[in-house]
Structure formats: C-alpha cells, structure tokens
Design brief:
GO terms for molecular function: oxidoreductase activity. This is 2OG-Fe(II) oxygenase. Keywords: Oxidoreductase. The protein is mainly beta and 104 residues long. The chain is 5% helix and 41% strand. The strands form 3 sheets. A 4-stranded antiparallel beta sheet has the order 1-10-3-7, with no helix packed on it. A 4-stranded antiparallel beta sheet has the order 2-8-5-6, with no helix packed on it. A hairpin with a 4-residue loop joins β5 and β6. The chain starts with a strand and ends with a helix. 15% of the residues are buried.
Length: 104
C-alpha cells in the first residue's frame, strides 16, 4: 500500500521495475507490475509510460498490469488537490540460485 501526498507526493522519476538495481550485480526480480488504484478525485497523478507515450489516469478499483522491464519505463506523476492511494504488487522471477543451486 502506498500513499502519495497531494501537491508533493508521487514517484516522478523514470524507472522500470528491474532498474535501478539495489546493489552491484543485483537485478530486481520483478517480471510484472500490478497496481490497483484505490481512489480518484484529484488532478494529474497518472502513471506515465515513457516509450508508449501514454498516461493512465487513476480510477477507483481499476487494475494496471505492465511488464517489469525497461520497455515499460514509467513514473508516477504528482497528484494535485488530493492524496493518491494505490496497492502495488509484482510477479517475480525466481533467482537462478533458487532454481539450480549456487555455483561451487
């Protein structure tokens, strides 16, 4: 669950779910992004996709599904005139170490 404060919140930085990475050699293992918009009633606050040149306006109860890779680089635009609430989850890749064990 996330709350973005009106007129100041949001995540206005371009990113994908796999980049930036949390540390050297550590890719984020997010294959698919799932976001449920929990409210509306504010201006702006869209999820904007860079390469698709598309803005998805929040509508209460709607579900956004997008690939986690760089092809769907996106940002959360700042909500104006009210707070924005979302529930976010991901479908994850399993790490190779979990599938095959660690190299010796």
């Amino acid at each position: 669950m996330q709350k973005y404060f009106g007129d100041q919140g949001g995540y206005p930085y371009w990113h994908s779910e796999q980049h930036p990475t949390p540390g050297p050699g550590e890719g984020m293992h997010r294959a698919l992004l799932l976001t449920i918009y929990l409210n509306e009633g504010f201006e702006a606050g869209e999820t904007e996709f860079l390469y698709q040149q598309r803005k998805i306006a929040p509508r209460t109860g709607s579900l956004l599904i997008a690939p986690g890779g760089f092809t769907h680089t996106h940002r959360g635009n700042r909500p104006l005139g009210g707070h924005k609430y979302i529930a976010t989850s991901w479908v994850l890749y399993q790490r190779a170490e979990q599938l095959y064990g660690s190299a010796r």
